[in-house]
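Fold description:
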Amino acid sequence: EYLDAYRTDSVSDHKIELIKSYSDKKLSCIVVTDNAAFDLILSLKDEYFKDVPVLFAGVNGGLEDIRYDDVRGILQNVSYKDYLLWLNKAFPDVENLLVCGSKTATTQGTYEQILEAFEESKEENLHYNIQLIEISDYYMQVEMIGEYDPKTTAVYVAGSFGVLNHDQYTDMLSSNSGMPTFCGVSTSIKNE
């Protein structure tokens, strides 16, 4: 079953019931990508999918609370503090860092984590400000980015955008803005 909570407003009760209906089928594995599907399957695992292994990818956050031996995958985590310090050194002319994405939990969560890292890095005398550009219309987003000076602005991609994956979205923003554009997705294997 396909669940896409980031392109719709929420996970509907109908979709949850549909996913539960698979509990009486012989499944060899459940594969989930991103936090909404991951959280949903973990909430249903004990009652509906007890003996079905779960593979995940693209999940933000830690796995400290996972109590299952058959849940494994790849986290999507970034050291935002290290990134901000690198940007400060590598691009001394940057005055604005634009955190861009569509209106999703991933974009908002990334922005909040970058702001937290920014606060932790204040003693490093960072020479730029951070702005959030969170618009679900790509062309409006590019227009808003265009209001900033390309000589003093860098862009950070905070997730995918509609049907574009992280790489495609980064490439398009870079091409259309003429600004240094970064995608901070990195992965590490956990719960092996």
Notes: The first strand starts at residue 30 and ends at 33. Confidence is low (pLDDT under 50) at residues 186-192. Residues 105-120 form the longest helix (16 residues). The helical segments are 13-20, 35-48, 80-90, 105-120, 138-145, 166-177.
